[in-house]
Design a protein that fits this description.
Metal Binding Protein, Guanine Nucleotide Exchange Factor, Chain A; globular; zinc
Length: 149
Amino acid sequence: MSLEGNATTLHGSCHCGSLRVEFSTRLDPAAIGPRACDCSFCRKHGAAYVSDPDGRLRIAVSEAAALLSYRQGSGAARFQLCARCGVLVAVTHEHDRRLFGAVNAGCLDDPVALGAPGTASPQLLGPEEKVGRWLQLWVPDTELLISGT
């Protein structure tokens, strides 16, 4: 997908810089409210996610050993964390050989540029409903780029 023109690219990383994210969107960042997931895993990480189904998300990993992927709950989503500093940078889901993702707003360099946060309650949804919601809200143009592979 090409986001030429009036796209905004927000950059971020984990604390040590081993995982870097680029989130590109044509939406006004001030209109994108981070969604704070109320599951126990996300609450313990203070995670609130942003995405744009017409955007692009790139997760660049310095080397394979720096990436820790964790599944919990239904196991349908993978939480992408830094194996070195522990920061949760994104969540992804593979569907029909396509990677969908949302970035943890807390790892962005300028999370203040985003809109007011809200709460999401995926625990209230069944497995199919969760996936359907992700396919509507998350970035379908997500790349996980691991250096050296």
